[in-house]
Amino acid sequence: MTRSDLDDDTLIELWRRGRLLPEGVDPLDMLLRKYQDRIARWALHNLENQEEAADCVQEILIRICRGLPRFRNKSSFSTWAYVITRKCCSTSLKRVKRQRLHRASPDEVIDLENVPSGEKAGSRLEEEEETRKLNSLMASHITKREMCIMRMHHVQGYSMRAITEMLNLVNASGARAYLASAKRKLRKKLKEEDLRALEGLKNQTTKNSQPPRGQEREE
Q1: How do residues 32-50 score in pLDDT, each as one tens digit?
Q2: Does residue 162 contact residue 205 with C-beta atoms inside 8 Å?
């Protein structure tokens, strides 16, 4: 039986038993990859905003990881995942609506002393750009399970022991091993990008130091 022949129930059962697929593939990671595009389409249909939908997808995948130990196959996994998607999108829509109402409120008082200066605003934009860069690296260079564990630990504050129990991890080091693997991959990728940026800076510096054509150096 090939990986493509495995249905959702089989993947979930393999995950519960702590078994891996051929070539060491994690059943949960395969299940999440199988549904990621479908969940993204559902989220975009509900939210009608690509950026908000992308943020919501990450939250949905985390909720699936957290809720899977309690999933009892009373409905199909697809139906269950869709219900989680609708709830997450509903929460997101309510949050966006509250934010818009707050911004539009005529009673809102603007404290000019607390308006960020140009320097602070620039710093905030830099932080947002770094966050987008890190999210992009996470999406393309670590597994779905590693991403889920990183967010559960660093964003939601769960302990390594709690995550290990919630995700039914049976490897020796539990969630800590996945977290270490994810950080190692991200550090390596960031280092490679830093080296490329440094090489580009050196090349630009060398180019700028050369005199224009036809112009002799002064002796």
Answers
A1: 999 999 999 999 888 888 8
A2: no
Inter-CA distances, 90 with 45, 79, 84, 98, 152, Å: 12, 16, 10, 12, 21
Query: Is pTM, for the whole model, over 0.85?
Result: no
Residues in the chain: 219
Q: Tell which phi-psi region holds residue 75, choosing left (phi > 0), alpha (psi between -120 and 50) or beta.
A: beta
Secondary structure (DSSP) of 160-204: HHHHHHHTT--STTTHHHHHHHHHHHHHHHHHHHHHHHHHHHHHH
Distance CA 189, CA 137 (A): 8
* CA–CA distance, 9 with 31 (Å, rounded to integer): 10
Q: Which DSSP category does 117 fall into? A: P
Paired residues of 25 in beta bridges: 21
Q: 137: closest CA among 192, 57, 197, 61?
A: 192
pLDDT tens figures, 51-85: 888 888 989 999 999 899 989 888 899 999 999 99
Domains in the chain: ranges and CATH: 1-102 (1.10.1740.10), 141-195 (no CATH)
